[in-house]
Specification:
This protein has 467 residues and is mainly alpha-helical. Helices cover 69% and strands 2% of the residues.
Length: 467
Amino acid sequence: MKKFFEKYDLIKISGILVLLSVFLTWLIPYGYLQGTEMITEDIQRVGLNNFLQWGLLGMYYFTVLITFLFVMGGFYQVLSKRPGYQKLVKSISEKLKGREIPVVLVVTLLFAITSSLTSEYFPLIAFIPFIITVYNRMKVDKITAFASTFGGLLVGTIGSTYSTKIAGQFTEVLEIEGTSLLTTQSILFIVSFVLLSVFTVSRLIKNKTNKKHEEYDKFELAAIDTPKKAPKAWPYAIGIILFVIVTVLAYLPWSTWNVTVFTDITTWVNEFEIFNAPIISYIFGTIVEFGKWDIFTVQLVMLFATLLIHWFGRVSLNEIFESYGEGFKKIGHVVIVLLMVYLILEIAVMNPVIPTIVDWLANITSGFNAFFTSIGAFITSLFSVEMQYAMSLAGGYYAATYGEVHNVIAIIFQSIFGLVSFFVPSSAILMLGLSYLDIPYKEWMKFIWKFLIAMLVVIIVIIIIIA
């Protein structure tokens, strides 16, 4: 057992938070908001039956995330065996060798910007295996690789501007104009990006003298027989470029920006008729417009790309299925860690003691208090996983109690939730990334603790100013 937890320390770390969430239900009464009134029930303890039941239900509630990871694993396992894709990766990594610093900074910025804007940040993870493969061949260490990819997504979380997953929740729950927070959100974005970049580049420079390189790519290019003809890389280059463009466009909040071009095009396609029959809709079903895609849709893109490889790359279905099986196996423990993370959320939502804690904190003082609200936001963020659940557990309470300071509450929750996401075992992006790259939690904390302290100081200053 000791060796198991040493190897899979992320399961141990997330498991501790799971047990803490269970323990709290044995001490703190069940609470919820009814209208503007806080209702507190008797203590409702989570027993063994509840625990096992909710653990199994997690596979049902979050099926879309599980299938996303498995499809991504299978897709990249197929790619790793294709000579054209191998040639593309080798060519890119050779050309970028020696330019690690600008490459890392650009990649981090692109992930941060898109995460800050998109309606779903999970589909952006679909690009990461390709980048990780390139980084590994460039001899970039895995902590830097993590900071540049998953870390960029986390910067987009703390500095969210238009993302409906973060900033959009405040518009819905706190009923505020999204643009009213844009200046402060932009400051959080810029400061967090600069700070993370400084620490990442410092590590990169320090590790340049280290001749040892630990291989960390799950989908390292597979050894294959040398093809008779020189492989063509350009179809894969075009495919990846189109994949990135389509995915980013599909998850940007076009309706928030009052851009209707994609709605108009999609409506025309869905309504296009031949002999008074909407033939395209009949064949493909209703096509969803850019800006309203869900996580299932990007999986369809990867599956369709796999079919193109089968048809035009002359890859047998047996090889496709075999590669998908290998990919499923490689991504299996990542799925387990993710399910542990969402089990924390399930317990917090199914047996909500967080509202009771938040109510206790709010009643310590009369009127709004930024300090105790920040503590409430911190505790809520520990168990929420996603901002929508943080808002459902505590946002409604603050909205009903402190109607005159909704903007301040929004910034407190965004900054605290974003900061917490960099280190708590309930952060889906963090734990997914660490497990994907096999980075021990302790090793990550050794790197990120200075960033956390610096960002905490920045957040305190911002809260003092706006409060």
